[in-house]
C-alpha cells in the first residue's frame, strides 16, 4: 500500500526514517505559518484568515506532491513572491488584494496548461548538467544564509549591506549551540539527527528566554474573509499582464531550481540529469497555486527547506505526506509549533546547506566555459536572495560565453530560447 500511495521502497528507506524526515522538513519551514500572514496582512487581508489559508494551502499542495509525484518535497506560499504580492502589487502599485489574487489564479491555470503540454519539463531538461550541479550548490548557500539571517547571526548593515550580528548571547548564541549539537549528532550517525537537533536546541532555548511556550491548542480562525475573493474587472489590462508574468517567472524558476537541486542531492537525477516524475511534481505546484488563490493565498512553490528532509533520509512521498499531516495538525496546535524559535531551525538549515553544496566537486573548474557560468549561478542565489535569479544569470552566461567561444555544439535551441526569455524578463 505504501509503495502504491507514496512510492515507498523498503529496500531503500524505512517508515521511521521517512516520518522523521517529514517532521524535520515541516519544522524547518514552519516559520511560513507566522511570516506569510504577517507579510500578506499588509494588503489589508485578515491576518487570522491568512494563517488558516497558509496551513490549508501548504497541506493540500504537499499532499498532491506526496501522492501524485511521490517525491519528498514540501510546498507552501513562496517567500519573496508573497512580498511582491503585498508590497509591490498592492502597496506600491495600489491594486487591491483581490486584483492580486486574480493574477495568482490565472497564473495557476497557465501553469496547469504548461505542465500538461510538458513545457516546464522541457525547460528543466534544457538546463545543462553543469548548471544543475551549480543550482544544488547555490541552494545550499542560499538556505544556509536564510538560516543565519533568521537567527540574527547575519544582519543588515547600511554600509556593507550585511554584517555579523550577535553570537555571544540571545538567538545568535543559541544557533551556534544548535550547530554544534546537530553536528555532533550527525558525526555519531544518530538516527533523526536533524530533528533531534531542532528539539534539543528548542529545549535549551527555554531557560535562555528564547523559546516561549505559548500553549498547545487553539481554534483555527475562519478563512471566510479571503475565500473566493477575485476581481476580474481588469484581467485584460497591461498591468495585469505584467503582474501575471512576474508571478509566472519567479514561481517557475524557483520551483525548477528547488526540484533540480534537492533531487540532485538525493541522488534522484537519472543519467540524463532528468528529475523522476517531474511532470507530476510541476502539476502539484500548479494545483497548489490555483487552489491557493481560491483560498486566499499568494503563489505556492516547492520549498528549498525540503532539503532538510532529504538530508534526514527522506526519499519518497511518505516524507512529504508526513509534512502535510504536520501542517494540518498545526491548525489546532499552532501555539506549540510556533513556539519553536528560528534559532532552533537555523542550525539545520546551515548543516543542510553543507550537504547541498557537495555537487560542486563534480564541476570542471579548469574549463572556464563551464565553471564561470556555474559560479555565477551559485553566487547570485544567496547574494540576490533569489533561486530564480541565480538560474537566470547561470543560463545567460553559459550561452553567451560558449557562443562567443565558438563552442556551438554545447548549446541547444532550447537554451537559446531560455536566454531570450530571460532578457525579456529584464526588459519588463
TrEMBL record:
InterPro entries: ATPase_P-typ_TM_dom_sf, Azg-like, Azg-like_bact_archaea, NCS2. One of its GO terms (molecular function) is purine nucleobase transmembrane transporter activity. The chain crosses the membrane at residues 20-37, 49-75, 95-119, 131-155, 161-187, 194-220, 240-262, 343-360, 372-399. It is found in: Cell membrane. Keywords: Cell membrane, Membrane, Transmembrane, Transmembrane helix, Transport. It is a multi-pass membrane protein. Pfam families: Xan_ur_permease. It comes from the Bacteria. One of its GO terms (cellular component) is plasma membrane. Belongs to the nucleobase:cation symporter-2 (NCS2) (TC 2.A.40) family. Azg-like subfamily. This is NCS2 family permease.
Amino acid at each position: 500500500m505504501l509503495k502504491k500511495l507514496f512510492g515507498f521502497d523498503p529496500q531503500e528507506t524505512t517508515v521511521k526514517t521517512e516520518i522523521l524526515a517529514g517532521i524535520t522538513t515541516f519544522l524547518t519551514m514552519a516559520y511560513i505559518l507566522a511570516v506569510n500572514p504577517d507579510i500578506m496582512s499588509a494588503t489589508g487581508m485578515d491576518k487570522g484568515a491568512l494563517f488558516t489559508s497558509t496551513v490549508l494551502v501548504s497541506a493540500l499542495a504537499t499532499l498532491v506532491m506526496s501522492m501524485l509525484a511521490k517525491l519528498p518535497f514540501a510546498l507552501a506560499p513562496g517567500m519573496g513572491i508573497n512580498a511582491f504580492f503585498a508590497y509591490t502589487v498592492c502597496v506600491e502599485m495600489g491594486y487591491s488584494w483581490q486584483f492580486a489574487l486574480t493574477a495568482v489564479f490565472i497564473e495557476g491555470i497557465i501553469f496547469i496548461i504548461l505542465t500538461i503540454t510538458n513545457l516546464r519539463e522541457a525547460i528543466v531538461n534544457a538546463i545543462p548538467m553543469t548548471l544543475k550541479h551549480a543550482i544544488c550548490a547555490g541552494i545550499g548557500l542560499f538556505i544556509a544564509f536564510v538560516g543565519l539571517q533568521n537567527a540574527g547571526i547575519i544582519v543588515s548593515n547600511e554600509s556593507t549591506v550585511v554584517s555579523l550580528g550577535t553570537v555571544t548571547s540571545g538567538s545568535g548564541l543559541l544557533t551556534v549551540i544548535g550547530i554544534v549539537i546537530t553536528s555532533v549528532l550527525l558525526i555519531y550517525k544518530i538516527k533523526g539527527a536533524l530533528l533531534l537537533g531542532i528539539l534539543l536546541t528548542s529545549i535549551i532555548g527555554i531557560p535562555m528566554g528564547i523559546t516561549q511556550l505559548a500553549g498547545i491548542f487553539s481554534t483555527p480562525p475562519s478563512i471566510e474573509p479571503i475565500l473566493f475573493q477575485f476581481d476580474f474587472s481588469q484581467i485584460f489590462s497591461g498591468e495585469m499582464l505584467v503582474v501575471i508574468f512576474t508571478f509566472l517567472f519567479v514561481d517557475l524558476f524557483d520551483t525548477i531550481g528547488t526540484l533540480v537541486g534537492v533531487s540532485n542531492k538525493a541522488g534522484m537525477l537519472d543519467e540524463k540529469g532528468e528529475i523522476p516524475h517531474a511532470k507530476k511534481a510541476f502539476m502539484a505546484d500548479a494545483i497548489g497555486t490555483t487552489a491557493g488563490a481560491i483560498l486566499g493565498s499568494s503563489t505556492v512553490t516547492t520549498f528549498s527547506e525540503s532539503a532538510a528532509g532529504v538530508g534526514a533520509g527522506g526519499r519518497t512521498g511518505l516524507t512529504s505526506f508526513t509534512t502535510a499531516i504536520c501542517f494540518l495538525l498545526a491548525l489546532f496546535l499552532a501555539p506549540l509549533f510556533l513556539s519553536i524559535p528560528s534559532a532552533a531551525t537555523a542550525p539545520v538549515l546551515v548543516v543542510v546547506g553543507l550537504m547541498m553544496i557537495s555537487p560542486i566537486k563534480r564541476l570542471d573548474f579548469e574549463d572556464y566555459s563551464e565553471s564561470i557560468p556555474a559560479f555565477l549561478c551559485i553566487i547570485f542565489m544567496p547574494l540576490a536572495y533569489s533561486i530564480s535569479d541565480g538560474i537566470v544569470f547561470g543560463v545567460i552566461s553559459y550561452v553567451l560565453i560558449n557562443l562567443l567561444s565558438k563552442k556551438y555544439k554545447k548549446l541547444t535551441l532550447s537554451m537559446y530560447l531560455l536566454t531570450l526569455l530571460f532578457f525579456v524578463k529584464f526588459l519588463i
